[in-house]
Amino acid sequence: MSVRLVSYILLISLLSNSVKSQDFKELDSIADHIVKDYGIRGIAMVGVKNGEVIYSRGVGYANEHHKMDSSTPLYIASNTKAFIGLAMAQLIAKGKISPDDRLIDYIDRKYFPEALAVEQITLKDVISHSHGLSNDPITFRTSSSGEYPNDIRELLKFTEYYPKGDTLVKKHRYSNLGYLLLGMVVENITGQSWKEYLLQHVLSPLEMKGSSPYLPKGALADKMAIPYHFRSKTPLKLVKKDNTMHAAGGMITTLDDMGTWLNFMTAEDNKTNVFGLDIHPYFKTLADTDDSLGPLKIHGYGYGWYFGSFFDLPFNFHTGGFSGHASLMSYMPDLETGFFIFINEQSRMFRSALQLVLVYYSIIMDHPGKAKVNEMFSAMSRDIYQNYKPENLVKVDAQLQTIPTGTFVSEKYGTLKIIKIDLEYYLYLGANLHSIAYRGPLTNTWKAEFVPGSIENFSLQSEGETDKIRFGDDFGYFTRTNR
Length: 483
What we know:
alpha+beta; Beta-lactamase; nine-stranded antiparallel beta sheet; eight-stranded antiparallel beta sheet; 21 strands; 29% helix
């Protein structure tokens, strides 16, 4: 046995034995500073090691009436992908599917445009975001507007290559489309919706009783963490509803349950024993990536996880973000430790959350680079906070600008309704989204903020007596209907 290997084993042993004596006062201090001095509304954190929760804390508020605590319902957005990834790993372990199977073995070829070479795309490509496809209408409507057909496969006709107009390029490009497709695959194989499959075959065996692909009801809904912006104590409008809890980003959880999840991820025996399956293929890179941020390196992606390293030790993670619901789950398998963080913040101040993640692991490792990591991310947060400049949105004045009212329809994006109340215009897109109309740069243009922090542009382009409303630069048109 080499000296280097002996030293490595000794390091792991020392780290394991010292877990009970870890001092997280510095982590507490940083979190308190972020909430107090930057106006962040709330932070929730949990850390595990050797099968135990060693740190759990809520800082600040989940909403106007409830503080963050271990039972606060948290929307984790794209972290849902890791649970869908686990569902795929289960089906592979059961022999129901193979990573080398073609996508069209489970989603009929007829749903895709004939010009696309979808028969060349495998499940492995889809699981690793390397399918080479794009479909903005299906991702927008399932994540935001909530208006889509009962069979969402009907929207696959809008699928195209990425980049648009190119040929099929199997290169890792993160998007929601692949995991929406996997939700369809799960339903094809099991006869259950992806939501019911996760409840029965993933969340229930793990005893994650506070987790669900459905939004909470009653008293739990009252406790749920809702979105804020650090410049205001007033909550942002809520966008998520059950009809936008989709397979690429549709799960609610709690700190208690994320402690359970991370304990499962960091205990090798559990990967086999909880489900009675060998699902180790779930924990490896399927597509290469190359990115870095200081000592954090990212090497690959697979099954809903990014695989990389932190201070040269394996570090696996995923993030989730949507309108003031930002989270990051992570684990370091060699150290059998994991950490999850949630912040109900809308802006780029989520970098502060990453600071807390990496400080946690630096404390666990007792790494001399901790001070440099802390300094690096503190500087990022200060810069974002000090240089933040919100877009200056001014309401359309109906006395100065006329916007067409009525109902308009886009094959890609659904139904747009525009109404005028007194001297203001209001836009309603799909089942969920609404916004007041804001002035655009020209008299025939206007803007909307359906999702806080995301500005959509519209312009009037009439043809004869027909009003056509252009959506964005290349999203197409809404045309008037008599409905």
